[in-house]
């Protein structure tokens, strides 16, 4: 009986991988990005895998979750969720990073549920011989489209812990167009997002204009991560009107976005002001945000993402996906769930092109015309490469980073940098 199979062991391995000197509203990425790889081993010797945040508070709650899943059948998703909700709470005083909703400790329970759910679904798929997408109701598309995610960047990290990446500097409009061209040549993306909130809005708008000229007809997005004031966002809107498919989180707060919505025809998108069901209720009542960027890592998993998609359909909201620095296990989980969502109205975000290392067998996931093929093999469709896991874990042990801190990193370049938000 498949229900006799139970989880007998949980392995949590923090890893660190190289990440570029990417600029954002909070500062700049550190040379090492952290993740945690979670493995659930069963009584019949199978291993289900998952990838999530690797900062210290997250590692602590994952440790707490260990006992909650041992003894459960991989099919007991509801019981797992009940147990996690009953015992995993917010961590008082935890380090939080405003730009990355996944670092908010109030989301500890959904983050843990998501981590365990992906590994349990991987196991379910292996047991019944079906890809995860089939357990989610089956695919409505064979491949999931992603967008080219551009960043302003320096050529190399100030600390120089390894040789600079191959992308070079990305500060001027010409360099941003060049970055887009390279990313599209390599991956075939068919839409472009620029991470903004870094330079004066006039420069970022000029970059969008240059992208529009270089790639006529290509859907474009700009995401200043709430680093523009409401006034700046209103003033910029007419200039962006003809350029963008959506205007992502230009100014802070649901109220700010609601006021901005009165001044622009552009659909407003967010992964910052709606990150919980409570926000969803308030946001729906205000009617300001038109596109929701979901993220299974903090919304509570793949099934919760499907629920969110249904809510978006009901409230007539567009849907896409948010991303932070991640590797292939997360990319495949995103791909399975996105393939099951009929109303995925926009290509998903992914930081994946910025990562060079991998933790799965076969190395880097490939993109075809900007899309990832939905696996047809059982479970997630990818397996852990144990040698690589050991290498990335050793990097974690030696790199010294334990919590993401883009502000502190930026102060190495500009000691006076305050990270004040909104800055423009
Ligand atoms: O990694 O620099 C970054 C991004 O700014 C990230 O922290 C955001 O969470 O990509 C994200 C976004 O779309 O807001
Ligand atoms: Mg965003």
Report the β-strand fraction as a percent range.
Answer: 15-25%
Q: How many H/I helices?
A: 14
Shape descriptor: globular
**Separation of termini?**
61 Å
What is the arithmetic mean of pLDDT? 97
Strands of the biggest beta sheet: in what spatial order? 7-8-9-10-11-12-13
Shape-level CATH architecture of the largest domain: Alpha-Beta Barrel
Number of domains: 2
Secondary-structure-derived class: alpha/beta
Helical content class = 25-40%
Largest sheet: 7 strands, parallel
So what's the CATH class of the largest domain?
Alpha Beta
Pathway: Carbohydrate acid metabolism; D-glucarate degradation; 2,5-dioxopentanoate from D-glucarate: step 1/2
Catalytic activity: D-glucarate = 5-dehydro-4-deoxy-D-glucarate + H2O
Protein name: glucarate dehydratase
GO molecular function, one term: glucarate dehydratase activity
Explained architecture:
By secondary structure, this protein is of the alpha/beta class. The chain folds into two domains: 2-129 and 386-399, Enolase-like, domain 1; 134-373, TIM Barrel, CATH 3.20.20.120. It contains 14 helices and 14 strands. The chain has helices at 56-69, 77-87, 108-128, 132-135, 173-187, 201-214, 230-240, 254-261, 277-286, 296-299, 302-314, 328-339, 386-399, 406-413; strands spanning 7-18, 23-24, 27-28, 32-42, 47-53, 143-145, 148-151, 192-195, 220-223, 246-248, 268-270, 289-294, 318-321, 371-373. It has a seven-stranded parallel beta sheet. It has a three-stranded antiparallel beta sheet with strand order 1-4-5. It has a two-stranded antiparallel ribbon with strand order 2-3. A hairpin with a 4-residue loop joins strand 4 and strand 5 (47-53). Helix 2 packs antiparallel against helix 3 and helix 11 (302-314) crosses helix 12 (328-339). The longest helix has 21 residues, at 108-128. The protein starts with 6 loop residues before the first strand and ends in an 11-residue tail after the last helix. The model has no long low-confidence stretch (mean pLDDT 97). D-glucarate is lined by residues 22, 24, 99-100, 195, 223, 225, 271, 322-324, 349.
């Amino acid at each position: 009986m498949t229900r006799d199979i139970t989880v007998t062991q949980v392995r949590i391995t923090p890893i660190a991988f190289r990440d570029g000197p990417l600029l954002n509203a909070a500062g700049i990425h550190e040379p090492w990005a952290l993740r945690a790889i979670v493995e659930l081993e069963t009584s019949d010797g199978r291993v289900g895998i998952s990838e999530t945040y690797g900062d210290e508070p997250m590692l602590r709650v994952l440790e707490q979750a260990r006992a909650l899943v041992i003894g459960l059948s991989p099919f007991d998703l509801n019981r797992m969720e009940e147990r996690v909700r009953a015992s995993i709470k917010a961590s008082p005083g935890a380090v939080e990073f405003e730009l990355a909703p996944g670092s908010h400790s109030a989301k500890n329970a959904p983050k843990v549920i998501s981590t365990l759910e992906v590994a349990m679904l991987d196991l379910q798929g292996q047991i019944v011989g079906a890809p995860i997408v089939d357990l989610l109701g089956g695919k409505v598309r064979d491949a999931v489209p992603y967008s080219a995610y551009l960043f302003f960047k320096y050529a190399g990290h100030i600390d120089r812990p390894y040789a600079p990446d191959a992308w070079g500097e990305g500060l001027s409009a010409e360099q941003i167009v060049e970055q887009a061209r390279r990313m599209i040549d390599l991956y075939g993306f068919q839409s472009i997002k620029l991470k903004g909130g870094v330079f004066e809005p006039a420069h970022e708008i000029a970059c969008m204009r240059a992208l529009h000229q270089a790639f006529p007809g290509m859907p474009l997005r700009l995401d200043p991560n709430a680093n523009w004031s409401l006034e700046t966002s209103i003033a910029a809107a007419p200039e962006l009107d003809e350029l963008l498919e959506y205007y992502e989180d230009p100014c802070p707060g649901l109220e700010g976005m609601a006021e901005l919505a009165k001044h622009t025809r552009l659909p407003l998108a967010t992964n910052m002001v709606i990150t919980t069901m409570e926000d969803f209720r308030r946001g729906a009542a205000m009617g300001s945000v038109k596109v929701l960027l979901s993220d299974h890592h903090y919304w509570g998993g793949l099934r919760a993402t499907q629920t969110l998609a249904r809510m978006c359909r009901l409230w007539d909201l567009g849907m896409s996906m948010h991303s932070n620095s991640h590797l292939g296990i997360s990319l495949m989980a995103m791909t399975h769930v996105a393939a099951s969502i009929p109303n995925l109205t926009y290509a998903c975000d992914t930081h994946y092109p910025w990562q060079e290392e991998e933790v799965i067998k076969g190395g880097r996931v490939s993109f075809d015309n900007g899309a990832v093929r939905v696996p047809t093999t059982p479970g997630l469709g990818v397996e852990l490469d144990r040698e690589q896991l050991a290498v990335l874990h050793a990097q974690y042990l030696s790199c010294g980073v334990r919590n993401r801190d883009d502000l502190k990193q930026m102060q190495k370049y500009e000691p006076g940098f305050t990270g004040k938000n909104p800055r423009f």
